[in-house]
Write a structure and sequence with these properties.
Protein name: ABC-type quaternary amine transporter
Strand content: 15-25%
Order of helices and strands: EHEEHEHHHHHEHEHEEHHHEHEEH
Family: Belongs to the ABC transporter superfamily.
EC number: 7.6.2.9
Shape: globular
Enzyme class: translocase
Number of helices: 14
Keywords: ATP-binding, Nucleotide-binding, Transport
Number of domains: 2
Strand order of the largest sheet: 4-5-6-1-7-8
CATH class of the largest domain: Alpha Beta
Number of strands: 11
CATH topology of the largest domain: Rossmann fold
Radius of gyration: 21 Å
CATH superfamily of the largest domain: P-loop containing nucleotide triphosphate hydrolases
């Protein structure tokens, strides 16, 4: 398996299949006993393990913030180890807090227990980015958050990745999360056997075997919607849309649009541009036309993602 520079690779598979073990071999928290892992062509076993880890960001589900340190001190841990000056560290801490949408003047001097779970997770990401590592490892980083916070963090993470372009290995047990975030997905079975390694669209369209099909589960067509922007649909007249607080943005996916339609119960919703100006309407039928197939049981609760309930 090769991860290209700037690529976001998702490891997905059932509990106990070895996703986290594989990830931990990259930064030698677990030592590989055979084979090789190379970063920029250099075998990780040839590098000093502490030096290796200082150049790999690491984010875990439990976050792992030091409770006796302030938020600023937590973010500054690796830069201090690298011998950065105090002024450089302070500037980097402020920059990262702003990047993860936490006001430095409000959060720098707080302690982890004074933050919500979602805020702590943002700090965890900021700390992993502190020394600007080329590679990041993320082990179910959003798994402990509630569904609404999880979607917010995923959206924030995608925004960050678009600007930062890190090479990331991301472990999750949630296939929907893998589809939403990943450039490519490695579907793993027992002992980290790679059953399929491909783009989300290709895995959904052509599962390699019955194992991958069973892991995707029912509703592959619905899962594909998260990969398709609203702009792919042929929008209807503005007059067809129901006036109300729920609208769909051109930045949303068709899955977002479907969730909004089910949540509102409206036959059609307004689509707005970045300036919040109406540009057309969207319906379930127009979403179905993009897929080339009917979307079954649209009003069924099973079609509404947990994230949609908070919109």
């Amino acid at each position: 398996m090769t991860a290209e520079p700037g690529e976001l690779i998702m490891f997905v598979g059932p509990s106990g299949c070895g996703k986290t073990t594989t990830m931990k071999m990259i930064n030698r928290i677990i030592e590989p006993t055979s084979g090789s892992i190379r970063i920029d062509g250099r075998d990780v076993l040839s590098l000093d393990p502490n030096e290796l880890r200082r150049h790999i960001g690491y984010v875990i589900q439990q976050i792992g913030l030091f409770p006796h340190m302030t938020i600023a001190e937590n973010i500054a841990v690796v830069p201090k180890l690298l011998g950065w000056t105090k002024s450089r560290i302070n500037a980097r801490v402020d920059e990262l807090l702003e990047t993860v949408k936490l006001d430095p003047t409000k959060f720098s001097h707080r302690y982890p227990k004074q933050l919500s779970g979602g805020q702590q997770q943002r700090v965890g990401v900021a700390r992993a980015l502190a020394a600007d590592p080329p590679v990041m490892l993320m082990d179910e980083p959003f798994g402990a958050t509630d569904p609404i916070t999880r979607e917010s963090l995923q959206a924030e993470f995608l925004r960050l990745q678009e600007s930062l372009g890190k090479t990331i290995i991301f472990v999750t047990h949630d296939f929907d999360e893998a589809v939403r975030l990943g450039d490519r997905i490695a579907v793993l079975s027992e002992r980290s056997q790679i059953e399929q390694f491909d783009t989300p669209a290709n895995i959904l369209a052509a599962p390699a075997n019955d194992y991958v099909s069973s892991f995707i589960g029912h509703g592959a067509a619905i899962k594909r919607l998260v990969l398709i922007p609203v702009t792919e649909a042929k929008l209807g007249p503005i007059g067809d849309a129901e006036a109300g607080p729920i609208t769909v943005s051109i930045a949303d996916s068709l899955r977002d649009a479907l969730d909004a339609l089910v949540l509102s119960g409206a036959p059609a919703l307004m689509v707005v541009n970045a300036a919040k100006k109406p540009i057309g309407s969207i319906t379930v039928e127009r979403i179905s036309a993009v897929l080339g197939a009917d979307i079954p049981d649209v009003q069924g609760a099973g079609l509404v993602s947990a994230s949609g309930a908070g919109r």
